[in-house]
Amino acid sequence: MVKSQEHEHPKKAFGWAARDSSGVLSPFNFSRRETGEKDVTFKVLYCGICHTDLHMVKNDWGCSTYPLVPGHEIVGVVTEVGSKVEKFKVGDKVGVGCVVGSCQSCDNCANNLENYCPKYVLTYGAKYHDGTITYGGYSDFMVADEHFVIRVPDNLPLDGAAPLLCAGITTYSALRYYGPDKPGMHVGVVGLGGLGHVAVKFAKALGVRITVISTSLNKKKEAIEHLRADSFLVSRDQDQMQAAVGTMDGIIDTVSAVHPLLPLIDLLKSNGKLVMVGAPEKPLELPVFPLLMGRKMVAGSNIGGMKETQEMIDFAAKHNITAQVEVIPIDYLNTAMERLAKTDVRYRFVVDVGNTLKYT
Fold it and tell me: Cys bridge to 278: 118, 141, 256, 354, which one at CB 3.0-4.6 A?
């Protein structure tokens, strides 16, 4: 007989879940495993809302498993550690991002690229090693193998640090791997949302010259005055785009909607790289001729391995980088999802789980 979500594990847990593709979230009783010898258990204090959460609760990608407890930008305080845990102790500030498991034996895992392991386990809506479904951070506590837990430096506020575990590492890893991270280089950031605004912050801390590329002129003041971007391009202004042709060493494209790539490819210098970190629901058209003529590259990047994620958050602490967040109570979740669908957030919703999750 199959056990219910509430009884399949020994520890009673509570959170908010979507029950079907309507995406409506409501209180949910479930359970988590006991703290194993290599596990870290922590009380969830804050959890960011990623655009992926919106896609997953509505089954936009056709892979959602219900009931679904979202949340993969999770931070809190350790309450228990297993007997063989070496890196953490009770009271430590920690976080869990998008991945909670991998095979630990493939080439990717051996090279600290657990995020590209063919058997990686996502933090929610995936099958864990024991065959049960994983549940995310819209919940009271988490249990995770210490290998997939990140130490959050003391000087980072937890609410502003939470989105770094997805939005932060996604943009940081793209900058680091593809190389437009050297002082004096010129990098474009397409889209000034949850990913885009932290991409600007990381690039500025690396000494890179930044141009924000947006469809909306309304973002210009924010980009220049608050985020300290060096310049701003309205992508719908043909004169502005033409004047910037061939000026950029790299572009980080954070947009998750369908959009043309040719105008962005044209902005690149020879050998320039357009790195996709957004995830449009439909395929984009890729013109090949401009790539050939400039030896240009269109590439992709997806979060980062555990070693790089720790490196990223330590770098963020050193340079006082946090996400700009709107902290909300958990019973505002459905309204927040509606607003997120309309990009009505500046720039990341973060749920105050610790103070507002009430047991029912």
Answer: 256
